[in-house]
Amino acid sequence: DLHFETTAIHAGQAPDPATGAVITPLYQTSTYAQEQVGVTRGFDYSRTANPTRRSLEECLAALEGAGSYGLTFASGMAAIDTLLRLVKPGEYVVVSNDVYGGTFRLFDKVLAGYGLAFTFVDASIPAQVEHALRPETTLVWLETPTNPLLKIADIAEIARRVKSSRPGIWLAVDNTFASPYLQQPLALGADFSVYSTTKYIAGHSDVVGGAIVTRDAGAYERLKFLQNAIGAVPGPMDAWLTLRGIKTLALRMERHSSNALHIAEFLQNHPAVERVIYPGLDSHPGHAIAQRQMKMFGGMISIILKGGESAARRMTAATRLFTLAESLGGVESLIEVPAVMTHASVTGSALEIPGGLVRLSVGIEHVDDLLQDLEQALNE
Ligand code: P1T
Question: Does the structure show a pLDDT above 90 at 308?
């Protein structure tokens, strides 16, 4: 019954019984001595299990409440790919129509070729998800807030509609943008919380990783089998860095969110900006739902500039603190143009992103410095 902040620091991370080390040791080993054939201390090979990775998996599970199980992967995409192996050829997946470009690419350019069918819907309208369900549907895939349009899907309402249509349909939520501190998909009725731990969970832009958390014991056993069978697991060092990052997740999310709200309010009044998309603003169509299902509104802001893609390119060249880079969720602020960077793979599809859209990952620097940087870049 511990609070989130306490769980993040202690779950799966008791002092090392062998040495008393307060911090989970980095078990940088691929294999483990066996006393006799088949007699192990619970570990035989690091693709199957590793103590540092196990600590991370236990911590991530605990952050989404009692009875949860966690599995970690070499990247967010590896987590998504492994989860999608639960879907068999001939089965259907309903997907929210604004997702990370790499997720769209995996679904549309890879898995569709193996006989999985994907229907893209506007999941900010729950009825659209429900109407897209077919007898062959086995999975509904949501992102909320979405990347990069920050659309909000009502997880509890969609879970209710999907499960009343057919209880066996799984609901997975990519919770990367919110992190488990701001939003708890399993508590809202989802079967799987999926993460790129590269982002807020690790939080320092120094590691790539992914995770799946579930309370479905059967699905967990299947996914654990797939994790080992496929082998897209994180190395011990990556697990260790991610565990280190998690300890400050709550503090960081508070600052990311309060900085972003300030910045969104400032941008709303700037003459070069046509529209600010941030779930914390009254003007956001999903604001009321976000207020209900999220603790705060997160650190991601998208803005549409009046001057289109050329203005976007000029702005991103002019910022000094906001670094022009892909990715998000680190302590430092980043800026990018999704249409030509993170979401280039959706060009020409129904998911296309406007060229004048600039995405900000607001870091935890002092907000006045960030405001000043954006102001000078926009004035340019
Ligand atoms: O990069 P990786 O750890 O494999 O995670 C993929 C991924 C999954 N889900 C969401 C919502 C994501 O944003 C990402 C990765 N996104 C970026 C790299 C980006 O800049 O948007």
Answer: yes
199: annotated active-site residue: yes
For 309-330, the DSSP string reads HHHHHHHHHH-SSSEE-S---S
Retrieve residue 135's tokens.
């007898």
**What DSSP line would sit under 140-162, residue for residue?**
EEEESS-TTT-----HHHHHHHH
Strands (E) in 87-232, as ranges, are 92-96, 117-121, 137-143, 170-174, 192-196, 210-214
Give the Å distance between the CA of 331 and the centre of ligand 1. Answer: 16
27 in active site = no
Beta strands in 252-331 (DSSP E): 273-277, 300-305, 323-324
> Does 53 qualify as catalytic in the annotation?
no
Taking CA atoms only, the protein residue closest to ligand 1 atom 2 is: 76
- Residue owning tokens 């960081």: 252
Q: Which two tokens stand for residue 373?
A: 């940087």
Q: How far is CA 360 from CA 139, 289, 321, 330, in A?
A: 31, 22, 12, 12
User: What is the structure's pLDDT at 1?
Assistant: 83
Residue 205: strand, helix, or coil: coil
Q: How far is the CA of 327 from the centre of ligand 1 (A)?
A: 7
* Distance from C-alpha of 341 to C-alpha of 336, rounded to nearest angstrom: 7
Q: Could you tell me the pTM of the whole model?
A: 0.98
